[in-house]
Model the fold of this input.
Amino acid sequence: MAVVVMFLWNAILPDLTGWAQLTFWKALGLLVLSRILFGGFGRGRWGRNGGPKGSQGPPWRERWKSMTDEERQTMKARWRERCGPC
Done:
């Protein structure tokens, strides 16, 4: 992956901006830094949907689906009391 970053950087940016070309190690460092800053290392045991891998969504979603309309209205009213209007 660092080779791809190095190739793309060296093919585009020096001509456009006059910045220096990257070595492999600098490209690897840039890649690691960008993954730290922008969260590209994955989410561990948690999936993209907010719940454990293999789940159908965040844990509250199933609870919300199983509530009656009356329970949902009560929950929305409590939420408004705590957080104010949307």
Observations:
- Residues 10 and 75 are 55 Å apart (CA to CA).
- The longest helix spans residues 2-17.
- The chain has four helices and no strands.
